[in-house]
Specification:
This protein has 264 residues and is of the alpha/beta class. It contains 8 helices and 11 strands. It is globular.
Length: 264
């Protein structure tokens, strides 16, 4: 069988974004929106995810699932990349701090939407490959530093927004100190419990009452939680979303196809 071409990958990439749209639509009541920002979806349609995974996994790059990239790390599920990017809501003039470069996929998506991305990766080999991946795509708006991401990248602070790709027990204080007042931080918080979003969006009504969150398909085993907390410092407000989303709980393309076939 001949190898897949760029045209094949482009078709799969468009389908990936369509699947993300189905997931968001099915969970629209819980997410509070019927669709993600079109700018985010356009970036997802443009950035070639298959260029950011090991070559032998390229044919699987557009399935809605995390994939291993070595060193016990993964590239995040496309739905989660899209959701967290939408929550971050980067603007073209803004500087973004990313913690956890991996092989550079999330950074490439952010670079399509922001002014500059400063990314920190602790694994030297991954950082080197990420730089090569981004360079091959002509992505010059991302700078990568090898180091402990929990310390941020103070030399280029303050940042407008920050995105942490890996779960932490708590928000690193150094990260909080490097974000502008009223800025926004998106991160998974806790080993398995929650994904927290620190957001400085004005006019948001806050409540500490947990609200059920269901993901695509409505399976009760996939239910997470949303909590809003107004106690975050520095003009930030905290949202906590069930970590089941990060674990690939949303239906992938094959499952959606099977579900649709079952009701047709």
């Amino acid at each position: 069988m001949k190898p897949m071409s760029e045209a094949h990958f482009a078709i799969l990439r468009r389908h990936m974004v369509e699947v993300i749209g189905i997931q968001v639509d099915l969970a629209s009541e819980e997410l509070g929106k019927a669709a993600l920002d079109e700018r985010v979806l356009a970036a997802m349609r443009k950035v070639p995810r298959h260029r950011f995974v090991p070559s032998f996994l390229a044919p699987l790059a557009y399935q809605d699932t995390p994939l291993p990239i070595g060193f016990d790390k993964t590239i995040s599920q496309p739905f989660i990349v899209a959701l967290m990017t939408d929550l971050l809501d980067p603007e073209p003039h803004e500087s973004i701090l990313e913690v956890g470069t991996g092989l550079g996929y999330q950074a490439a998506v952010l670079a399509e939407l922001s002014g500059r991305v400063w990314s920190v990766e602790i694994v030297e080999e991954l950082a080197g490959q990420a730089e090569a991946n981004l360079r091959q795509l002509g992505c010059s708006d991302v700078a990568i530093r090898i180091g402990d991401g929990s310390r941020g990248w103070r030399e280029h602070a303050p940042y407008d927004r920050a995105l942490l790709t890996a779960a932490a027990e708590r928000l690193p204080p150094a990260i909080l100190d490097q974000i502008k007042p009223g800025g926004r931080i998106v991160l998974p918080l806790g080993p398995d419990e929650a994904m927290s979003i620190l957001a400085g969006a004005p006019g948001v009504e806050l409540s500490d009452v947990p609200t059920p969150l269901k993901v695509a398909g409505g399976d009760t085993s996939l239910v997470g939680r949303i909590r809003r907390d107004a106690t975050a410092p520095n003009g930030l407000s905290m949202f906590v979303v069930g970590d089941n989303l990060r674990k690939g709980a949303a239906l992938n393309a094959v499952q959606i196809a099977e579900a649709l076939a079952g009701v047709s």
